[in-house]
Amino acid sequence: MNVMSPETTHRPGRNAKPLTPVVITIDGPAGTGKSTVAHRLASRLGLEFLDTGAMYRAAALIAIEQQIDPGDGPALAAALRDARLHFDWTASPPRTMLDERDVTRRIRQLDVSGVVSLVAARPEVRRVMVDQQRDIARRHPRLVTEGRDQGSVVFPDAPVRFFLHAEVSVRARRRVAQLVEAGQTDIDEQRVIRDIQQRDELDATRTDGPLVRPAGAVDIDTGSRTIEEVVTVMEGIAREQLPDAGFES
Ligand code: DC
């Protein structure tokens, strides 16, 4: 892993101009286009990109493979501490690794998606993740990070925080398009809508790190704009709010 000073970092390939740390958080429910938006925003601004959902998905994969009850928080947390969950930052977006194994694709499969909300609801798991995410930000201090609790719990002092939302019907349409692209044919749209509502409910009502709109976050409706438009709006806000951050031009 590329370890940088927590105080300043240097733009690679340029004359060593010290750059200050800057964390931009993006939270919101599934289907708002968060990951794509976060990755593109990071590229435009010359920041790194952290997908914290991938970390919870890797935890769910550990539960499946080690046959740990997804509701057993202490056992999951112990397994997570033993596993070397990390990212390969040489790729863009970074690849999710368990030890030397690249699990980037594996963690998107249905079995993982089916248990990840349960795993993410365990306070013991969240504690380990929050620590790891702050540790990542110390090593990668110029970061766009996306998830459910990034602006509310993990980085409440981040200078720019966004909250993405979109109507359930819009998010369901996006999910259906993804499933079609993945080759699925017999898709029940009503079921997709119910699944999204159920996942929202689980994410919003868990006691630890629930999905909330962080106080002071900028609201962005992604349902009425294209992904590119959303990224452009967010880029403008970040540049305006942080004129001295040394973003890529
Ligand atoms: O964004 P995603 O679908 O990859 O997230 C997977 C799961 O992890 C989802 O149930 C929400 C949860 N999650 C979370 O609880 N906190 C985060 N910071 C990121 C994701």
Give structural notes:
By secondary structure, the chain is α/β, with parallel strands linked by helices. The protein has one domain (22-231): Rossmann fold (3-Layer(aba) Sandwich). The chain contains nine helices and ten strands. A five-stranded parallel beta sheet has the order 4-8-3-9-10. Strand 5 (85-88) and strand 6 (95-98) form a beta hairpin. Helix 1 crosses helix 9 and helix 7 (168-181) crosses helix 8. The site of 2'-deoxycytidine-5'-monophosphate has 13 residues, from helix 2 and helix 4.
Structural class: alpha/beta
* Architecture (CATH level 2) name: 3-Layer(aba) Sandwich
Please identify which CATH superfamily we are dealing with: P-loop containing nucleotide triphosphate hydrolases
Beta-strand residue percentage? 15-25%
For this structure, the CATH topology is Rossmann fold
Rounded radius of gyration (Å): 18 Å
Biggest sheet architecture: 5 strands, parallel
The first-to-last residue Cα distance is: 26 Å
- The overall average pLDDT, rounded, is 91
- The ordered H/E elements are EEEHEHHEEEHHEHEHHEH
Q: For the record, what CATH class applies?
A: Alpha Beta
Strand order of the largest sheet: 4-8-3-9-10
Total count of domains? 1
* Beta strands, count: 10
Named once each, the bound ligands are:
2'-deoxycytidine-5'-monophosphate
Shape: globular
Number of helices: 9
Low-confidence stretches: 1-8
Helix content: 40-55%
